[in-house]
Amino acid sequence: MAQVNPLSNPKGVKLLCELCQHPAYIQCQDCKVTYYCNEDHQQADWASIHEKICQLLIPLRTPVPFFTSAEERSHCTEQLIQRKKHLIDITTNEAQRMLYEGKHDDVIPAASHSLSLVIDVYGLNSVELVPIYLILAEANIGLGQLTLAEEYLSQAYWTVLKTTDCSNTIRSKLHRNLGLLYSAKGEFDESLRHLANDVFFSSTALGTDHIHTSGGYFHMANIFYWQHKMDIANSLYSQVVDIWYSHLKKLVDVKIKASLRTGPGWSDDFEQESLDENEEAEALQILRAICDIREQAPKKDGTKMVKILHALTMLYFLSMDFQKAHELGKKLLHTIEQIPDEEALEDVSPLIKLIESKLASK
Of 24, 44, 311, 317, which sits 20 to 30 A from 283 (CA to CA)? Predict the structure, then answer.
């Protein structure tokens, strides 16, 4: 990430900072096609996304050679568009992952890259802009910059209104972000209205028991929790845990069956039948938060603690963090012993054995 003075570039070329679009004085020495106004912006961009896409930017920002035939020009243009779409996927996924991890500062550079690429490929009025607006809005909510978040949400809202064939999944995400905005502003009734719309559109698209629908229930539960309406909050938290528990159990059962087929040294493709990075990050965010709430309750419900600990143990196992899965597994077994619940013990035993075998094989 060394820096050089870009003044040796041809005169008349206007160099702008990658992050703020102000005049740039620093050049990335690795790709030599990215510029910054100061070292802070260079370091922020590097930590967020530039390290991952540095070399991928070179063909996008290098002048295209002159082609004599229309066929060659068309092929070159298509290749360029495909490269940009690939970068959109990378930057959007990275921004979403960091958002789930609560790294709101790091989200902004990655999402800004994605936004400029989407505008370039699809245009200023395209519905493809909406997911990026929503990521930027949620990051700014997390940073407490509510006015900026509201601006992004307004852009997303009007784009959705003008798009007749906008998917219910996008509508769901829009209402979820509006719910988060009003929650941050302390307008809980308005927040709950939008979160109810989130659940409605997500349920229509994916089903009431889908893991993506559970996010709406989770955020609604948080509002009732803050309002000390614990009966409603606990009911919604339990629904969220049930959805994730069922989903994770299906994935883990596939691994357990594979291990029984292949023995202690099982070596099936671990990535098959698993969570993607964003689902994993969202699950960790939601389930850890609920686990903390359950543990801090004045009167702990042993059965509910068993289920949330089992879900987290499965989640860490699927993410291949076997050490953390082992720690949670021991805590799970201890909680089961306190109830006691022979059926629960029998249910978790194959998973615990599998975790121990993975640790032993390292």
Answer: 44
Asked whether 155 and 177 are in contact (CB, 8 A), the reply is: no
Long-range contacts of 268-271 (CB under 8 A, 24+ apart): 270/320
Which residues, other chains included, contact 227 with Cβ-Cβ below 8 Å and sequence gap of 6+? 188
Instruction: Indicate the burial class of 324 (C-beta count within 10 angstroms; 0-12, 13-18, 19 or more).
Output: middle
Q: What is the dihedral of CA 81, 62, 119, 198, to 10 degrees?
A: 70
- List, for residues 54-111, the tens digit of each pLDDT value: 999 999 888 877 767 888 788 888 999 999 999 999 999 999 999 988 999 999 999 9
Quote the crossing angle between the two packed helices 130-142 and 146-162, to the nearest 10°: 160
CB atoms within 10 A of CB 321: 15
User: Does residue 335 surpass a pLDDT of 80?
Assistant: yes
CATH 1.25.40 domain residues, the chain: 229-362
Long-range contacts of 50-57 (CB under 8 A, 24+ apart): 50/18, 50/109, 51/1, 52/90, 52/94, 53/87, 53/90, 53/91, 53/113, 54/28, 54/30, 55/30, 55/31, 56/83, 56/86, 56/87, 56/90, 57/31, 57/33, 57/87
Candidate CATH numbers 1.10.8, 1.10.260, 3.30.530, 1.25.40; the one for domain 229-362 = 1.25.40
Q: Which two tokens stand for residue 288?
A: 């850890």
- DSSP codes, 128-194: GGHHHHHHHHHHHHHTT-HHHHHHHHHHHHHHHHH-TT--HHHHHHHHHHHHHHHHHTT-HHHHHHH
**What distance in Å separates the CA atoms of residue 296 and residue 99, rounded to the nearest whole number?**
25
Q: Which amino acid is at 152?
A: Y
